[in-house]
Design a protein that fits this description.
- It is a single chain.
- 49% of the residues lie in helices and 0% in strands.
- It contains three helices and no strands.
- By secondary structure, the chain is mainly α.
- The protein has a single domain, classed as Non-ribosomal Peptide Synthetase Peptidyl Carrier Protein, Chain A (Orthogonal Bundle).
Length: 83
């Protein structure tokens, strides 16, 4: 499963996402709000085994599935291997 598919699956747990695309503005469509962003962060960290730094928790990073996928990809690249 790609990261964008994972994000869409998590978003579908929050709201009906049957008519959204990777560039849909999630806040403007009412898919995300401040509480659902916290849920999304928790799920992304858990399912991708990453930590999302506080400085990445800005609206622009969560504006679209495309943006979420981009910044989580960077977090996954920076992830340190566990010994």
């Amino acid at each position: 499963m790609s990261t964008s598919e994972l994000v869409l699956n998590i978003l579908s747990e929050i709201k009906d996402c049957s008519n959204i695309s990777n560039d849909t503005l999630l806040f403007e469509r009412g898919i995300l709000d401040s509480f659902s962003v916290l849920y999304l962060i928790s799920e992304l960290e858990s399912r991708l085994n990453i930590t999302i730094p506080l400085e990445n928790v800005v609206e622009s990073n969560f504006a679209t599935i495309e943006n979420i996928t981009a910044f989580t990809s960077v977090s996954m690249q920076k992830k340190q291997p566990i010994d």
